């Protein structure tokens, strides 16, 4: 479309050959839209440009298009001939993406489009997140809206905002805006999985101020870096037991404090709440007389940690280097409390579901730790498919930090999505999947925050299901999407739309 090309040129200053290669992949209808989308910066809470992009896309197709009061974009397309008597389908995906990059990667998410490449069956990005979560869902919907040959019932495309950092788009969507009867959420990351439920979540923010002290004489400054971890989605990947850079760093700092009187000047660890922390950096000082013993201890502890995580984190890297002596450090009493609170703060799986085999029920991610200029901030995300269990773990973590004088705020709470195994659209998807693949799909709930639970509050009668193509390493620079899986997914979507139930 001419309008799409104009917008693409506005957002992408360079044309990368690898991105052109992506456009030639099958199905081209999906990959070309994905490439268009990836030229638009679209961080959570910074979606102005992608909202304008999507609004122009719908208007250029002469389809009913509007933006609601919180920024969600809704586009409606009439049914094709012969399918006018079918129930209206809401196709839903979120516009925002997680912005994460490797430390060595020079990239500005606010101005640059994602640089992509093909490696075997995978599409990846150059040192950044790819945006397949949930860009491939968005691109699939765009391809369906643009098509003039694919049979379908009446469609209502819902592109929500800010899914990754608060789900404020889904929360802000008012009842009565949508007209559809069935919602297909295209945000699941295993192509053999049909999602029927998900976890809810709550953000935990612990903060306090502290007195800084001047550094005494006879000290040596150090900088410690923990990196090379896999990271990943703090919901879907939490069951893997991957390393958390904030927890690793705390083990080093607590040991250094107890054995060498280490004094912290700064900590900068992790990033977004929904990403397992991959990197952490700390600046501190110790007495000069302990320098060599401390270095030896760090080296020995590093080898211990590498052995402990050799299977899960083979690329773990710990770097200790002498640094300029900081001017000020934390008060030792506050420092001891912080280190012990971080050691005690639960991270990882808290409880497995007793009802659904292999499903994480409740977990926590110690996502971000910042200590600088007299201020402490610790960010966590607690998830659970059981509200009482989520409350229990959130209160456990809240108590740990309140005991050291932190103000603790619980915010951004969103509900889970209760499975409905009698769902009519579930039956359609299961039968279609078996017919296409000759295999049984994996019908499951997931330990991630899908928007279905939130949308269901204002649309309780809407029949909902979630599925999508295979994506690995979401929320990390290792994010990648399977090319063959996208082909399978595209065929699956088209077959589903042919067999939507008749209106009641």
Overview of the structural elements:
- The chain has helices spanning 2-11, 17-23, 28-37, 48-60, 132-146, 168-172, 245-260, 291-308, 332-344, 387-402, 424-437, 452-458, 483-498, and strands at residues 64-67, 73-77, 89-94, 116-119, 122-125, 155-160, 182-185, 193-198, 200-209, 212-214, 219-227, 263-270, 280-287, 317-323, 328-330, 348-352, 360-372, 375-384, 407-414, 442-446, 463-466, 471-472, 480-482.
- The longest helix is centred in the middle third of the chain and has 18 residues, at 291-308.
- The strands form five sheets. Strands 9, 11, 12, 13, 14, 16, 17, 18 and 19 form a nine-stranded antiparallel sheet that branches. A six-stranded mixed sheet has the order 1-2-6-3-7-21, covered by helices on one side. A four-stranded antiparallel sheet has the order 4-5-23-22.
- The chain has two domains: 2-199 and 417-498, 3-Layer(aba) Sandwich (Aminopeptidase), CATH 3.40.630.10; 202-414, Alpha-Beta Plaits.
- Helix content is 32%, strand content 27%.
- The chain is elongated and about 85 Å long.
- By secondary structure, it is an alpha+beta fold.
- The model is unreliable at 1-17 (pLDDT under 50).
